[in-house]
Amino acid sequence: MFIEMKKQRFDFSVGKAKFWLRFDIQAFYNIEDSGYAPFDIISQCDDPKAVRCFLENGLADWYNELEYDENDIDEYVNRLMSVEGFQMELVAYIQAAIMLALPQVEMGSRRTQSDSSSSNILGLMTVFVDVMGASKEEFMSSTIREVSDRWERYAVSMGYKKPVEQFSKYDDD
Asked: Containing domain of residue 131, as a range?
């Protein structure tokens, strides 16, 4: 169910080489395991170790799609980081890819104390795997936005939630 979801990724090129960044839940887990939080790239954009960590994890899906490649992902990261004056542009790409991975916040919505405490990864995975019948691998390879979009569609289809009304703005002039 809902397999047709489009994967969120940020495409960019350096010279003739084309790359893309995608931060799924596994990438966020690896980043946190390295001692960084997803938004540390904003405050630590001058730290080459932080940029390298985010690049390695964001490029993981791109690298895994390469066929018959003898190079290690570190070689690609080294090439990207060695381009003079390109680090701030890389940071901007990383930030854009992270924003693609996060769900959109509804305008005018308020969060309560109970909402923020119940949004942990294990609870979300339980809902995704047990309730929706997906696999743990599928969950870990999805972005947070993809998981929340899939839950919205599932909740509407099962009648747990009413569909969000879409309003169109018409120009009567």
From this structure: 119-157
